[in-house]
Amino acid sequence: MKFAQLVIGPAGSGKSTYCETIKQHCDAIGRSVHVVNLDPAAEQFKYPVSIDVRDLITLDDAMEELQLGPNGGLLYCMEYMEDNLEEWLGEELEAYGDDDYLLFDCPGQIELYSHLTVFRTFVDYLKKDGWQICAVYCLDVQFVAEMPKFIAGCMTALSAMVQLELPHVNVLTKMDLCKNKEEVEQLLFPEKHEMLYQLDKQTGPHFQRLNAAVVQLLEDYSMVNFSMLDITDEESIEELLQSIDLAIQYGEDQDVKTHELGEFADANDNDDY
Fold first, then answer.
1. Other CB atoms closer than 10 Å to residue 232's CB: what's the count?
2. In percent, how much of the chain has pLDDT > 90?
């Protein structure tokens, strides 16, 4: 079985830092992980890149040749990748087999995960090739500071969950910069009445019906919850990785190590209590 994480989320939410952190952690514990760059606008990395979409197409080339702006150019690059998955990605993935584990570091344009077909096609291709995939949706913890921003983050996460139809883990990143972790912990499992109360308090009275409808939508799906990531805390990194591994059943097909008969010490040999 082959395993992968699809690391998605808004621009500046810490996706590349997440990939760097997981890569370093896995290297430290002797676990083989490879990082794939899917951002044609990326310029530099703090981790070794095993597969790079810029070998297929770059944002600068698309903007120059087609006279597109940054956002239009990036969408063109992603659609070009979608059209060339078999020729480009299929060939690159031939080097990876059973028990390989990939991190796909994705661009930060939300529309790629919310309603365009690019990453749904990408995910379907990987599934067909035998990959077990978990979507890791990164959201900057500063979104928690204001309820309207937090609701917006929940809605975009829900949209990605519905669009991609994958095992999904939502992560509040940059917890190492958060000064009030107790407040954040209260929102890891968003509660309808508290969200609506805070939303009404921070918006005008003419938004109350809209607020109620949005919060009810999140309640009806009841799918959005969050894990926290503090990149300075090894325990935080390990707990998050275990959650993701559980979602994609990583390691469940490995043989259980047992002692052979006679390897256990005889309890009667130790009479001192």
1. 10
2. 81
